[in-house]
Design a protein that fits this description.
With 562 residues, the protein is mostly helical. Helices cover 76% and strands 0% of the residues. Helix 6 runs antiparallel to helix 12. The longest helix is centred in the C-terminal third of the chain and has 52 residues. The protein is globular, with a radius of gyration of 26 Å. The model has no long low-confidence stretch (mean pLDDT 80).
Amino acid sequence: MSKEYQFKPHEQPIMVGSPANPDHPARRKVFYLLIGIFVGLTASFQNGLLVANLTQIQGQLGLTPAEGGWISVSYNMTNACITVLLYKIRQQFGMSLFSKITLSFLLAATSLQWLISSHLLDTPNISIEPYYLEIVARGLSGMVASGMTILGLFYCLQGMPTVKRTSGLILGFGLVQFGIPLSRVISPYLAIDGQLENLFLFQFGLALICFGLINILELPPGNTEKVFEKLDFVSFGFFASGLAALAVVLVQGRILWWTTPWLVYPLIIAIVGISIALWIETHRKNPMLQVRWMRSRNIIAFMVTGAVMRILLSEQNVGAAGLLANLGYGNDQLVTFYVVIIAASALALIISIFSTNAMDLRRPVIFAVALIALGSWMDVGVSTNSAPYMFYLSQFLIAFAAVYFMGPLVFEGFLRAIGSGPAYIISFSVIFGISQTVGGLAGAAAIQAFTTIRTQMHYADMVSSLNLGDPAFSAQVAGTRNMLSNQTTDAAQANIGAMSQVLQGIQRQATVSAYSDLFFLMACLATAVTIILLLNYLYNRYHKRNPLAKELAVIAKMRETK
């Protein structure tokens, strides 16, 4: 687009830091939309490839589970706290520089990741420890994922007609949900025999394509102004350190267990750091975060809903996936399982794009929670004979819900922020990002703790109820001993091995029972949330109230003045 082009009043940017909205020709809109989809999917891969291949990364680098946990911490700590800074960078320096900074970090992160996986550093002449480079690469990936998600969102918005801008917003945020299932599907084909070099070379290739596409078709320019203040960096420092410490607690707590003494220190840092940052923002003349607005009942309800949804959705990413992993199924055996999840996500995204109604945003969220409840109830009663195909329908429903709720929830938060003023957009972005990142980590941590405790309880009950004189138990031990006798001539060793294998079988059964308890708990929680949201919805319908009436009126007035 020519730099001499003068934007019409209706084409002006919605706010400082966002691109203008010119009337593009149809062909250009299509290219904007395609680039937005590609960039959004690339952003989702930053976390998806880590989640799908963390075990292989740990094995390749010879790491302990705790060391592998620091890799996850590095990604999540930067991903959770960088949103507030990225927003101000766009406001002060514009979209063009923001795009270049984001792409530079993307290339740096993927280059480092490929360099580590290529074993080029495994030479005596190079003293750089690959593990620390991996942590740096993942920290960069966390920042990149936030920036790329925003870029993808803006490109999708440019590709939509003016009356369908809501669809671009839903599409941009919905694409984030595809990262993990897509990574699970492609990883077995690229990382053959656990070799990750091809996988991260593929990721580097995606980064190069993004770099080329965004330079070929740039976003329209927007307005800029000087927004950075010295106090921003002080406040951000406390806020970022608090969120980083919280990520340490949630990730390492479930790996090392919550009673680990040193975890109290990052917990204190999290509480103190976040509290100081919020206090600073509350008493500033020009705050980055509108703390009083964030403390309002509607916004707290929005944040809690988003976090609870993310915790409930952990039933899929941690619950069902964790059970299948414990049953011995690897990524290569779960390709069809994740294809089903991708299909459900795509269907939900399409339906959400064409059906979301700004006048009725609560109903899709209620429907999504109800689907999670139904899917969780279907998973109750799993056994050691459960196979991936038995979870196709339940996980299809949950995957559908994961995407279907996202658009209406984001749209509601966005409307509340716009209705209060453009300055509140950054607060909405921070609230939504934290509720999703921290909610996901909290969900994974809670599930890990619950299944560990319930496994120990079931195992203790099963072992204490063993009757060594029971003919069936004696026959099981004897059968196992006969199998082992073909491998050793030592009868005592065969007896020990037979008992060990029987106890391993009991441990496996205890683990499966614990996951069945988890699905029951998730089903009850999702059912309760559905009832609460439904009662609130019916109450508003009965009194003919729209919870967003005030915000919609403000936005309508803004449109009339343009």
